[in-house]
Structures are given as C-alpha cells and as structure tokens.
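Schema walkthrough. Field components (list of strings):
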Amino acid sequence: MLSMAGKSVRKWWALFALPTFAAFVIGFLVPFVMSIILSFCHFATVTDAKFIGIHNYAAALRDPEFWHALAFTVAFTVVTTLIINILGFAVAYLLTTNIRGANIFRSVFFMPNLIGGIILGYIWMLLLNGILAHWGRSITYSGVYGFWGLVILYCWQQIGYMMIIYISGLQSLPGDVIEAAQVDGANGRQTLFHITIPLMMPSITVCTFLTVTNGFKLFDQNLALTNGAPSNSSEMLALNIYRTFYGRPGFEGVGQAKAVIFFVIVAAIAIIQNRLTTSKEVTA
Amino acid sequence: MKKSTTILALVMALALSGGTLSACGNESKADASGKGHVYYHSMKVEQVGQYKQLAKRFTKKTGITVDITSASSDQYEQSLKGELAKSKAPTLFDVDNNNFPNWSSYYDDMSDTNPYKDLTKKEFALKSEGKVSAVPFIMERYGLIYNKALLKKYFDSSWSTIKSVDKINNFKALKTVADEIQEHKNDLGVSGAFTSAGFDPSSMHRFSDQTAHIPVYYEYKDQKTDTIPAKISGKYMPNFKNIFDLYLKDATVAPTQLAGATMEDAYSDFNLKKAVFIQTGTWAYKQLRGQGVADEDMGVLPIYIGTKGEEKEGLTVSFEYWAMNKNASDKDKKATKEWMDYILNDNDARKYTSEEMGFETPFKSYAKAGFKTANPIHRANDAYAKAGNYDVVIYPLPSQQWVSTLGNAMLEYAQGTKDWGNVKTAFVDGWSSEYKITH
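Field assembly_structure (string):
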C-alpha cells in the first residue's frame, strides 16, 4: 500500500526530475556526444568541424608524451590509492575507538577536503618550495619531485574524506558478530582481518572507486602545483589533454581523441575495480 | 482535468528549467537601429571598463551599439574558441603574435581598412595566405628596464669600467656592466645585476618568448621574410646563450631555484632596488609605478645579444592586433570598420585611448596629432627612434607549444639537469617540427 506522498511521486516523478534532467542533458549528455563526434574531426571552434576519420586517434597514440602521462598517472593512482585507503582506514579505526577528542580530530582530518584544488596546489607549492629551498631545489626540479609532491598533496587532501566513509562503515558494523568473535576468543588482529575488514568491503568498494577514478582524473592540483614542469615530466593525463587541446592550432581534435581514450580507460578500470571489490563483499 | 494538469505541469517544468538555465546564455543586444552592430572581444581584461566608456561615446555619436567582452590573458585563447563558435560571434577580436595562426579560418582581409592604411610601417600588419589578416593597434615595447639611480652609482664607482649609459650599446658592454655590478653587489647594496629569471608560469614566457624573439628577429632578417619560415638556421644560438647565461649568472637568485621564482618576485627585486635590470616591457608599468623606483629613474636598454651592428639596435616592439571576423554580416562589418575609424580619427577617442587607457599606437594619425602616452617605458624609446635605431620587431613563432617546450628546456639548462644542446634542439629542430605539424 502506497502512502499519499508515494502515490504523487509515482505520478509526478518525471516533472520533478525534468529540471535536473534537462541540466544533465545540456551539461553532460550533449557535450559527451559532441566530444565523441568532434574526436573524428578537424576543428578550431566546436561549431565548425570537418570530418577527418581516425586521424586524430592515430596522432594521439603516436604522441610519446601521452604515453608518459598515462604511465605517470597509473603510477600516481596506484600509489595514492594504497596510501589513502590504508591510512584513511587506520585513522578511521583509531577515531572510532574511545580516544579523547575524536570528534575534533575527525573535523581536522576532514578539513583539507573543503579547500579547492587550485588553491591547495598553490599552497603546497609554496610549502614544498620553502622546504626544498634548503637544498637549493624546487618542486619542479624534476618529474620525480613533482610526482611525490603530488602524492603528498593528494593524500593530505583525500585521507580525511575516505576516513569519513570508513567511520560511517565502522559505526554500522553489527556489534553482535564482533561480540561473538570476542566470546570465541579471537584477538584484536583476528577480529580486524577476519571480521571487520570483510564486513567493511562495501565501504572499501566505494573508497577505492573514488580514489582510483579521482586519481586518474586529477587536474587542478597538477596544474597549480607543477603545471607539468619540467618539460611535461610531471604531467598527468587530464593536463596532457588540456595542453594538447590548447597548445597548438589544429590539435583540438587530437585533444578530443585523447579525451575519449581517457574516458574509455577510466570507465574500464572503474568497472573492473568495482567487480573485484564487490565480489569480496559478505553479509554478516 | 487530468490533461490540463499535465499541460500545466509541463509548462511549469519548462519555466523552472528555463529559470535554472537562463543564466548560461548572455545574448547581446539586438541591432535595433539597423546600422549594424559591433561585438568586440578584447584581450585587455583590465581595461574593459574603459572600453565600455569609449563604446558609450561611440554609440552616442553614431547610434551603433557596441558589445565588449574580454578574458584574462591566460584564458583569452580558450574564451575566443568559445566566442567564435557562437552564432552571434565577435565581429572584431584581438590576436597576438603567437596565437595568430590559430584563427586563420576566421580572418577577413583588412587591406582596405583605414587602420591598415594608416600604419606607420605596413610590415607591422600580419599576413596570411596573401591577405592582410590582422592589423596592430596597440604597440608594446620591451627591453631591459634599468634603475637610473643605481646605474649612476655604478658609473660613479672607482672600480667601474664603463662610465655612461651611452656606452652600453652592445652585448660586451652590457656584460661588463652586469659582471662588475654582480661582483660589487654589496658596494651598490643590491642582490644582483638582474632580477630573478623566474621560470614559474607567470614569468617563463619572458625568456622562452620575449628573449627568444631577439634571435628570431635576426633569423627572419637573414631570410629576408616577414612570414614564418619553415626552418631556422640556429646561427644566433650562441648569442641567445650569451644573454641567457648573463641573466642566470648575474642575478638575485640561484639558478637551481628559478623554477619557483615568479613574476612578482622579479618585480619586487626591481621595486625594492635589489636589482638594477629587469627584462620586461611597457605593460609592466602598472606594477612598477610608484613602487619604489620613480618614473624619472626608469630607463630602458635594448636587449643586446652580441650580433653585428647591434649598436644601432632599438627596443623590441610587439603588438596587439585587431582581426575582423569574416563570417560577420556586411552590415556588422561596416559598423566594425566605423568603430575602428572612430578610435583612429576621433580626437575625443584618441585622447581617451592614449591618456586614460595608456595605449601607444602604430598609426600615423596619432603621431601627427601628437597623441602619446606618458608611460616612461614608451617614452624611453623616443631617443632610440630619434637616433634612427632599428626596431626589433617580433615575428611569429611556430606555436605556443614551441614556446613552452623551449621554456622547459631553458629551465632544465638553468638548473643544470640538461645541457645547452637540449635548448638548441628545442629552438632549431623544434621550429621545423612544430612548423610541419601546424602548417
């Protein structure tokens, strides 16, 4: 039996969804379809395109800097996904035990997330350059410096966010299972690895999904912290696409082709990752 | 009943979504007068207010409406891409030298326009496919701006070899001065002869673009061309190395830290009298005025790189260009030409652009009527012009990508991670490869 509100929603959902749907179509679907079409075209502005077939894709795949950016991005994503999730989980685990000031710590850890990527990039550039100045270096001294600078920045920003998701997961764990384990004489370590973590798999799925896709798509922080310097050696995929699009006349289509390839990669990885972690999910 | 509520609901939904999305579009005023309409997309974001003032006066006089839009310099290209894609695209837009090739499918032939006919030198206009595609309307000059008071202190010192600024008329003299200042920096109370040669994105283009234009100018001259050549010889690479090494060695900051040094750092070095020279141009006057170095203490030297006959070299001249959109309607094109003529010939407009907006123009009519800006960096050029020195004109570079690849190579050379050969490759080989992929 549906309530009155439920009945109205069933009847009128389309109406309420319409404004958002329209915005979604204009802001996402149309550009998405257009970008796929444009990736097969030569163009200077988006309304004035000439079909040229797969030429753009060939040019994109021939670009060694694209492959470098891809490798850099994969390495970055692997490293940050591991660090963020392990540390995020650890902090969450710590802050769900009875320690003093847990709430303050939660806010403090979450805070970096509220700062925009560009500002964060500039702040960290100043901080890291300030430290590196002791050795007469700067963050853009080499691609390796840029890589670890980005890792530090991004972990600092994301650990707090993942922590919140893990905390809510930990808090909703069924207490009876853990109690039963304790009664059976499981030690803390056994409880963590055999009870808590398997039960936390839904949270882990969400968090790894977010860190993997966000790591892949990282742009603002990269732009503000190193801008790819020196010689594009600290350039990630999104920045490479942006630079391709705007760097040379006639390369808009190549940038577009790279963006489509980028989308396929991110979508594929996200689906595989989701399958993998979801298959490990258990119910208590 | 049911049907009417459905219709009502649909209408409301449309109204609602219309409300959320109306903020996206910003349609320009329709051309009500039938006299055509001007839509000008300008590069000078800080002067949009003044442009609008000027447009108001123009509209009052002619009845033609003018819309002005703009974007900051680092966003300008992106914004132009969006603007030109509109059905009501700009009828007139600004281009600069580096981005000139990007819009070749939009340029109208401007050879019959008055601004082109009125140029002091026809070679200043940019040509593509045999037609006049862009006409300069703002002149900028750059060189080595120096602090006259500090330099005088140097001339007056017992240890200085060179005793007057007239003697600094080639690279050798410049190097002597810079090296001696660097050596005796404590006596002069400075941290270096030159401000930091920063390679932060805000400052990198000063070297990979502005300094690079000097050898590029001589390459063009050797090839006797003013359109972009497919290849350059690299003959002036040692000269380019000369000047860049000087900037690195005789500077306020160690070369390993240049990657993070910003334009602001360079300005503050100069404003706080920590450095004698700064390589920048007329546009920087806003950042230098009243910040410590008085106007009468600012002088400008040409950027000497050690070429033959450079004693007669003058300051580097760069331009901002007008380009007309060939897709505009004839009526709008006519209105746009009237707008340009207004700026060119109307006394009220000329007074406003030169005194209030601070523009220096390459037009005969302005020179004849005596309209010029008080900007001391512009006025420093008068002496060179009077002495008959030649302008170092900035000619097109292959692409923005060439500039940034060169900049990165220069940075890696500066901090010692790669050698000069890498810079040379980026400059010479990079030129032909960029030319090939963009032409």
